[in-house]
Design a protein that fits this description.
Length: 173
């Protein structure tokens, strides 16, 4: 009687255990995200303003901007990226451990803004993969918080089985 109604072990393993682990893992990562601030222009002032008591960025688990990219999960690029600055942005991105996310803040970081010039990169997405774009010149702190909420939604939707940084690397003999 009970044997016919039994749920196969594969479904239990995949649905109950793994989803619970995913939920706990993603909940912890979502509320302990550490940003690396890469402020290059006036958007950085709005980012600093978002850290004040009036806006309270601490409610997102981001009380301090990290000085070292090796401790950061989120790189916020705010402002104009020049071709001379591009290698430093790429180096900071490469130094960040997985899982890592990038948020482009402001028109200049997204598309070069009003600076259509030989010296300005026409979007930071030419050198690093951008996960969320926050438009505006400069965007208000509320817009930055909306972008952070979108990053949180991305984190909540991830699973240990599908993310690229969790898999075991194959060692060559």
């Amino acid at each position: 009687m009970f044997e016919d109604d039994a749920i196969p072990v594969e479904k239990i393993d995949r649905n109950i255990f793994l989803t619970t682990v995913d939920w706990i893992y993603n909940w912890g990562r979502q509320y302990s995200m550490w940003p690396a601030m890469f402020g290059l222009a006036c958007c950085a002032i709005e980012m600093i303003g978002a850290s004040t008591a009036r806006y309270d960025i601490a409610r997102f688990g981001m009380e301090f901007y990290r000085a070292s990219p090796r401790h950061a999960d989120l790189m916020i690029v705010a402002g104009t990226v020049t071709h001379k600055m591009a290698p430093q942005v790429k180096r900071i991105w490469d130094q960040m451990p997985e899982p890592k996310y990038c948020l482009a803040m402001g028109s200049c970081a997204i598309s070069g803004g009003i600076f259509k010039s030989y010296a300005v990169l026409q979007g930071v997405d030419e050198i690093v993969p951008v996960d969320v774009y926050v438009p505006g010149c400069p965007p208000r702190p509320e817009a930055l918080f909306d972008g952070i909420r979108k990053i949180h939604q991305m984190v909540r939707a991830q699973s240990i089985k599908t993310v690229r940084w969790y898999g075991k690397e194959k060692k060559e003999a």
